[in-house]
Design goal:
Blueprint: H1 6-17, H2 22-29, H3 33-48, H4 56-94
Amino acid sequence: MPRLRENERNQLIGMIRGRVSVSTVAHHFNVTRRTVYVTLQRETERATGSQKDRPRRLVIVVVVVVVVVVVVVVVVVVVVVVVVVVVAAAAALVAGLW
């Protein structure tokens, strides 16, 4: 089922305020009754200023970016350590210590 656009959410809220049943509204917008109730709850929270922070997508993006950065840093550190070990081994070999 597609997400409701802003104008559809406004229409949904208007229909409910106009005493249209939740089932009828859900059928009209081709959504579940749960979607109608959640939309009403979010509108109530928004109107009363008690809405929880809901930047879920932003949080997911930030977490993914942090994970990628950490992985890149770990890979770079491993590469640097390997290069240092190889250079040290080569220097020891050239110096005849091995």
